[in-house]
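Box 3.1 A note on notation
Throughout this textbook, protein chains are presented in two layers. The first layer is the amino acid sequence; the second is a C-alpha cell string describing backbone geometry. Keep the layers aligned when reading.
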Amino acid sequence: MAAPLSACQKLTARRGRCAARTETAPVAFTEPGKKSHVPASNTVCLSTQNRDTVSPPVPRPVIKTSRLGPEFFDRPCVDLARALLGQVLTRRLPGGDELRGRIVETEAYLGGDDKASHSAGGRRTGRNVAMFMAPGTMYVYQIYGMYYCLNVSSQGDGAAVLLRALEPLQGLDYMREARAARRKKEACKPIRDWELCNGPSKICQALALDKSFDRRDLTSDPDAWVESDQDPQAAIVSAPRIGIGSSAGEWATKALRFYLLGNRSVSVRNKSAEQESS
C-alpha cells in the first residue's frame, strides 16, 4: 500500500491538476534597472472562481539575493528581531517551486528573566530545545493542538525571535490555497493578499511549515532560508508583544515587538507606538 501523502504534497498535486484545466498566469519580477521578466518555472494557477477576486500584485518586487549565513543570526535577540525586518523568508516546496514573503513583524523572546518566554528561568524541555541551539536554528511549536509558529534562535541562552507577519511576494496562489484548506467552509470568503501571512500561524499554513522544521538550520537547510533584501530607510515601530498575559508582570508591556511602519501585512497596529516612532 502506498504511503499517505502529506498535506504539502496534496496541495502540490492539486495545484498541478488545476493548471491542466485552468489558465495559468506568469508571475513577473523586476530587478532595478531591468525590464520585467517571467521565469519559466514560476507559473501559478488561477481558478475561474477566484480570478476576479485576486488582489493587485504587491508593488515592491522581491530582489533575489544570497542566503543569509550564520554571521547574520549570531547577534542579541532584540538586534536580530529588528534586523530580520525587510528580509525575505523563502520556502522551497517538494516539487521545486519557491514561496517568498518579506518579514514585516517580529517579536523578541529573551529567555532568562523574560517571563513570557518558553525558556523563562532557563527552563529547557524537549519542546523548546531549539531555543538553546546555534543562532539561526528554527524553533517550531504547536498551539491549540493544530497550528504552528516559527521562531529563529539568536544569541543568548534560550532566546529566539518569533516571526509574526510576512508580506507575500511569490507563490501567492499556493499560499491562498494552503490557507483555504485549513479554514472552515462557512468562513471561506476570498483571502486578500495582505491577509495571507499576517499572523504567526498563518505564515506556517501558507508556507507549509510544520513540526518537521523544528531544530533545522536556516543557514544551510535546503527547504527554508532567509534572503537579504532589507530597506535601510524603512521605519520600525517598537510596541508590546501580542497576547502576553498579566502573569508575565512587567514583561507584558515591554516593547519587544517590532514591525515596519505602514506595511499592510502587519498583524496588529499600535497607533500610539507609531506616533512615538514618527
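The two ends are 61 Å apart (CA to CA). The longest strand covers residues 98-109.
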